Amino acid sequence: MSEEILQRQNEIAKLIERHSDQDGVYKTAIPSLFIIHRSNVTEPVYRVYKPCLCFIAQGSKEILLAQERYEYGPADYLISSMNLPVIGRVIKASSDAPYVSFKLEFTERQILEVLNESEIQITPKENAKRAMFVGQIELPILDAILRLARLLDNPQDIPFLAPVYTREILYRLLQGQYGVALAQIAMEGSSTYRISDAIEQIINDCDKPLRIEELAELASMSISSFHRHFKEVTAMSPIQFQKQLRLQEARRLLLSESADAADVAFRVGYESASQFSREYSRMFGSPPRADIKRLKEKYDQRLHVR
């Protein structure tokens, strides 16, 4: 890693630490920009990633997408180009050298605007690409990230400059090694673009029965072609994708509402409480009641320590 890159990473790490006085995820004054601070390795966290760029200034993390594992640190960046249910865990952090990172969410429309207004030439690809990838950080990308991060120290400049620097980051990413894969989400005609509509419908109707015929029609594909392209993009089948969404939502409801497990099972779309309990245990390691009890006890301990 070059000295120039190391210097910029150190500046970003110090900047994030200044704006996050303790562990947590912080929404900043910059639209769609979050900073994360962790002083210890973490348990797996289950969530849906929106389209985003993730950059780690210090520490490292692993992301699981179905059975695929992505590990990245300061030498890399991670992109999720669609809404994807993932499992994330900080794997390198300490009180002396905390994990500090930067997540910038973006939209298909922003990608399309950069493509339309720049001279980047990308041809739509018929073959779908995985909607998550790790690339090696490059100096032009890092410079753009640093310019955006510096605005946290100059909030009066955010309204004017944040959109400019965000567009620059997307422009640099589109010029990088995974530019073609990122561009596909905004290019009509690509199979990746068509799969994105089906993903949105599954997310919006995750408590309803999955109708593969309707999803394939929405994507303008045959059923067999839809299954193949969906798995190429998400690393899982439509049913597996929906299951992860349902179980994540069920866990959120159980934690936030102290609701009955059987009631939550039906609310997220399960017809059988016993099937829900089995699949919940398989995903989270223990049945709903035991899992929620453990999480609440751990949260109470953390509050007590503070």
Automatic annotation (TrEMBL):
It comes from Paenibacillus baimaensis. This is AraC family transcriptional regulator. Residues 196-294 form the HTH araC/xylS-type domain. Signal peptide: none annotated. Coiled coil: none annotated. Keywords: Transcription, Transcription regulation. The keyword NADP does not apply. InterPro entries: Homeodomain-like_sf, HTH_AraC, Tscrpt_reg_HTH_AraC_N.
